[in-house]
Every structure is written in C-alpha cells, then in structure tokens.
Design brief:
The chain is of the alpha+beta class and 463 residues long. The protein contains 9 helices and 28 strands. The protein folds into 5 domains: 69 residues, no CATH class; 68 residues, no CATH class; 97 residues, no CATH class; 56 residues, no CATH class; 138 residues, no CATH class. The strands form 6 sheets. Strands 4-3-2-1-5 form a 5-stranded antiparallel beta sheet, covered by helices on one side. Strands 9-8-7-6-10 form a 5-stranded antiparallel beta sheet. A 5-stranded antiparallel beta sheet has the order 14-13-12-11-15. β2 and β3 form a beta hairpin.
Length: 463
C-alpha cells in the first residue's frame, strides 16, 4: 500500500535533487522503518537496519506485502527517518551494561550522524553522569555534551552509540589531528633533563597560541614556555613527535607524583604501561602498596582519586563476573557511583533476558515485572541471586514512585506505590488520589514505566 500522509516527524533539511526520490517503507506494529528507499533515475537503493545503502528491489515487493506501507518523502523527512534508524539501531547494537564503557560519537549537526567520518568528538561513559571527552594525548576530560543534547540546550548537535572498535579508530584519527593539524609539540629541558611539555597551535588565528602541560592536574593550560626556554641559557625547547611528547608527559606525571608521595595517602593505582598514567580511569587495579615493576606501573593517589577508582573497579568487576539468574541478568539501579561498592543500597531493580535482545523490565513486587526503558541514563551494577532476593524483599515493602509514558505528547502519569496501594496526582501541589493504574500495564502495550530518581527525590525531599 502506498500513502503520502505525514504527521509530525523529525525533519532535517537537505539539498533537493529533482532526479532523486525517497520512499519510507513501514511495517505494521513496528516503530522503526524497514527501510528508506532512494530512487536515482532508474537505480533503486535502500538504507536498511544494516545502516548502509545497498541495491534494492523493495519497492516492487510492497503490493504483495500486506503489512508494509510505502510513503513518499522529501529529502528532509527522509533524513529524519535515516537519523532515527541510525540512532536506534546503533543503541541496540552497541550499548551494553557489561562493558567498561559506553562509547559515543558527537556531531555538530544531527544529520551528520549518517556519516561517522563527520564526528566531532569522542565520548566515553563509565557510568551515567560520568561522561568524558577524549582530548588527545591519552587524556580525557569531563564533558556535558550528551546531557546538553538530551536537555535541549544543544539544539544543533547530536550523538550516537559506537562500538569499542569504532571508538579506537576514531581515537586514532583524533590523535593524528592533534599531531599533524592542530599542534606542534615541544619538550622543554633544563640542564638537559626534561622539565615540561608545551604545544603551539599550527593556526595563526587560534585564540590560544601556546599551551603547557600541567603535570599536577594532568591537562594542558594556556602558557608561554617555548620562547622563554629558548632565551634561557640552561634551558632548551626541542620540537618532538606527538607520541614522544605523550611519553614525556607520562614520565613527568610519575616524577611529580613520586615527589609528592608523602601527601598522596590514597594508595596506588596499577597501570599496564607508563603512558596509561595520563588516564587514571585506565588503571587495572588499586592497592595500599606499589606493585613490583614486573606487574605494572604504580602511581600514588589522593584519597578522593583512590575512592573513585575503587568504585569504578568494583563496577567493572561486577560486569565481568555477571552470570544469569533463572534466565535473566539482573541489575541493581544505584543513585550514583558512590553506591557502587554496596548493591544493597539499590533504589530499583531491572532485568533483561539472557538469551535474546534486551527487553528491559522493572521490578514491582514478587512475580511482577513492568516494561521499562533501557538503562542508558541509569547507574547499574549486575547482581547475583543473593543480592537480588535481598533487594527485592526490601523494595517490596517500601513506598516508591513511578512514571508512565506511552509515546503520546502530553501523556504522563506519576504513581506513588506502597504495599497498601497506589495513588496518583496531576501535579506536585495536587493531593494524591487512590488509583489502580499500574495494574493495567498488561493491557497497555505502549506503556513504558520507569522509577526516576528525580521523582523520588522530589516527592521525598531527598534531592
């Protein structure tokens, strides 16, 4: 069946070509299109869930497929569907609660997500609220880019999930950019000993012309060291390759930490290579004493660094040791990273099947799990049977707060649930009214039910 009636859809303008037409093939009961078909003259191509354009004969099959609907679209609407397909399929494929990191590519323009080569920034997420952007030189800095997109503060840009392999390749491209297009690197020596690393912009119009690596903070900051070193009789500034500059940066960090060891009372992080010390989060272990050199590189830590690293390593260990319980993987939902060492502090429970694509469910009470969204915006920790039963027993006796949406604009319900019953209200100042809404979820296949931390904090005053 062919149809050209469009409702409210995402639209990303593009160049209209009179020789090119687009058709969207939808399947009844499926939110995502089967394909976007592009007809250039007499040549038919389809963009499918494989996320690439391929030769196609789909249009000729439409009349014989009763569940298919084909809708013509201009380039703007076609781009909207292409973007949606890329975002959804990539999220399904690459977002895992068992990986050390979720990786994302950020784009300055949403429609650019169709071409990974146009990505502007590489972002990793060890846990929600912990996003970090790769800044070259084996260093990462905290970033709000994904949250700015999610909150609508960045209306032009967007981001998509990418694989660990794609992240590694993107990182190599960024390193090459820093090395060959952005900066020239210098090692500053005093009496022949490396004392600092500086970098000068290759662009005369750059707002910052020179930066100096701060081996205490582990990042570059504006400075003027190269010219000063060239004028100092006991100093020198030698231009060096990017990789060599990074190795010297790592050596300077180790030297500074060794000098400050008496003040660094948090223990030691263990790294596979010295260059890894530029990224504290890449540590493979933590101990009270340095490990033998044959087992890795040890770096003294502050108490705060040690505490955060211990929590992240706890999460990673739980992810690697996760095993199914009665055919499902179970996850404790935590308020934040600070609860990672104690799954008993979970504020919610979610699960997904162990033998199929994730279909996420939220624990309500014994024997009843509600359909929920994926945990992209949650801090989760895989748990075993003992933690599962203990957390479930506790949650079954607590007052909890749920949100229900069904994809329709304006539809949202807030539910307060306790063993004594449930209640709802229209807005925060209205009184709670008894209801029986959650019990209807089996008859409402479009519902998505979540247990958001912000709602719990608002209603209990714990935020």
């Amino acid at each position: 069946m062919f149809d050209s009636d469009w409702g409210l859809r995402d639209f990303y303008a593009g160049d209209e070509d009179p020789n090119v037409t687009y058709t969207i093939i939808l399947v009844a009961g499926q939110a995502l299109p089967l394909a976007v078909v592009r007809l250039t003259g007499g040549v038919e191509e389809a963009f499918t869930h494989e996320l690439r354009w391929e030769p196609s004969t789909l249009l000729s099959r439409v009349p014989s497929e009763p569940t298919w609907t084909a809708k013509p679209a201009n380039v703007g609407y076609a781009n909207g569907f292409l973007v949606e397909m890329v975002q959804v399929v990539r999220a399904r494929t690459h977002l895992s609660e068992f990986a050390d990191y979720k990786y994302f590519a950020y784009f300055r323009q949403t429609v650019d997500v169709l071409d990974l080569r146009k990505a502007h920034a590489l972002i990793r997420r060890p846990e929600y609220y912990g996003d970090q952007e790769y800044m070259g030189h084996n260093t990462w800095e905290d970033t709000d880019r994904p949250h700015d997109v999610d909150r609508g503060e960045d209306m032009q840009g967007d981001y998509v999930a990418i694989s660990a392999q794609e992240a590694a390749e993107f990182r190599q491209r960024l390193d090459a950019w820093w090395a060959n297009e952005a900066l020239r690197h210098y090692v500053i020596t005093v009496n022949g000993n490396p004392a600092a690393v500086a970098a000068r912009s290759r662009s005369a119009s750059a707002s910052v012309q020179e930066m100096v690596f701060d081996d205490d903070k582990g990042e570059f900051a504006p400075g003027e060291l190269v010219s000063r070193a060239q004028q100092d009789p006991i100093a020198a500034a030698e231009e060096v390759p990017y990789d060599y500059a990074v190795r010297v940066m790592a050596a300077l960090v180790c030297f500074r930490r060794d000098q400050d060891r008496a003040k660094l009372t948090g223990g030691y992080a263990t790294f596979q290579r010295q260059v890894d010390v530029l990224d504290l989060d890449s540590a493979i272990g933590i101990s009270r004493e340095p490990v033998p050199e044959s087992e890795g590189v040890s770096l003294p830590l502050t108490d705060f660094e040690a505490y955060r690293l211990f929590l992240r390593l706890s999460l990673r260990l739980a992810r690697r040791e996760a095993r199914p319980v009665d055919g499902h993987y179970y996850f404790a939902v935590l308020d934040s990273l600070r609860d990672a060492a104690d799954a008993g502090r979970a504020v919610s429970l979610i699960r997904c099947p162990a033998d199929s694509a994730p279909r996420w469910e939220l624990f309500l009470r014994a024997g009843e799990w509600l359909p929920t969204s994926g945990p992209l915006s949650l801090v989760t920790k895989p748990i075993g049977a003992a933690d599962l039963h203990a957390i479930a027993a506790r949650l079954s006796g607590e007052t909890r707060y749920f949100q229900i949406v069904n994809g329709e604009p304006g539809f949202m319900r807030f539910i307060r649930w306790s063993p004594a019953g449930e209640a709802t209200r229209e807005h925060p100042d209205a009184p709670w009214q008894p209801c029986d809404v959650l019990g209807r979820w089996r008859r409402e296949p479009a519902w998505t039910i979540t247990e958001p931390g912000w709602l719990r904090a608002r209603e209990t005053g714990s935020g």
